[in-house]
Amino acid sequence: MAKIKTIGVLTSGGDAPGMNAALRAITRSAIYSGFNVKAIYRGYRGLITNEIVEFKTQNVSNIVQQGGTILKTARCKEFTTPEGRQQAYEVMRKQEIDALVVIGGDGSLSGARQFASEFDVPIVGLPGTIDNDLYGTDHTIGYDTALNTIMWCVDRIRDTATSHERLFIIEVMGRNAGFLALNGAIASGAEAAIIPEISTEVDQLKELIQSGFRKSKNSSIVLVAESPVTGGAMGIAERVRTEYPDMDARVTILGHLQRGGSPTAQDRILASRMGAAAIDALLEGQRNVMIGDSNDEIVYVPFSKAVRKDKQVDRSLLEILRRLSV
């Protein structure tokens, strides 16, 4: 394998709090280890259009506390085509970039996997997504911050829910995964979580209503994952109006509120550890792996597992939520 001299770094897909902390750790760890660093703006699109700037240590000063990503991020249809990936590779060669570190979610790492297999480029991925849905890591960068934001919002919604004795249906992110809805419900003391993982197994709304969850309470809060499998908050609210017309239901969709804000200490530390580990992985000759966190230990997860295998929710948490909502 050719010696790596210059590392390119990009953020891709949906932004997540902690991406800047990861970028800072990657840049400074790389420089510490004798590498040059080139920052790629606007994800894979910037790799194709050559939006690339050399980074020194001062480029990442005072960003550890910032949400979003200073490198910007963008979806890139061109990168899904062989022609687009060929163009990206040619830009890499022109810029003399020998390896890539990609910070992003499932789609971003799937793109990295394909790119690496086609052009034999060493790539290390960091799991940057609030959904916490990547296999092989206990936590993804941004998840803890999003969870705290959800808790903060639900705490405030509960004040008005209690005042008006209403059922509040709150939609959180998680198109294919219920981690935010389930753990957000437990953290905020909600009565139930409706998640895609079990929507095909049980009628979660019917189960909730039949449990008599309103008998001992003057307000109720239900968190719903935005997934089309669950129908989202609007779909659940329509069912309530049709099937349970005596209930006064209100909908709140948290939307992109969940993505923003300064990252929590946990996300800053996780991002910093993973960013430094990405450089260690390249020094060790690792390639096509995602940096994961398993039982508080850094692990290397092959892209083939990280993006192909489904991460399962802890079903014991559903039972805990049921017990605590009586």
Measured on Cα atoms, how large is the radius of gyration? Answer: 21 Å
CATH class category of the largest domain: Alpha Beta
Instruction: Please report the total strand number as a whole number.
Output: 11
Low-confidence stretches: none
User: In percent, how helical is the residue content?
Assistant: 40-55%
Order of helices and strands: EHEHEHEHEHEHEHHEHEHEEHH
Estimate the strand proportion.
15-25%
Strand order of the largest sheet: 3-2-1-4-5-10-11
Alpha-beta classification: alpha/beta
Q: What is the typical, i.e. mean, pLDDT?
A: 91
Overall structural domain count: 2
Secondary structure elements and pairings:
Layout lengths: L5 E6 L7 H14 L3 E5 L2 H7 L2 E4 L26 H13 L4 E6 L1 H14 L3 E5 L15 H22 L2 E6 L6 H10 L3 E3 L1 H4 L4 H7 L9 E6 L6 H12 L5 E5 L11 H19 L5 E6 L2 E6 H4 L9 H9 L2
Parallel strand pairs: 1-2, 1-4, 4-5, 5-10, 6-8, 6-9, 7-8
Antiparallel strand pairs: 2-3, 10-11
Helix pairs in contact: 1-10, 2-3, 5-6, 6-12
Features:
four-stranded parallel β-sheet; 41% helix; seven-stranded mixed β-sheet; alpha/beta; Rossmann fold; 326 residues
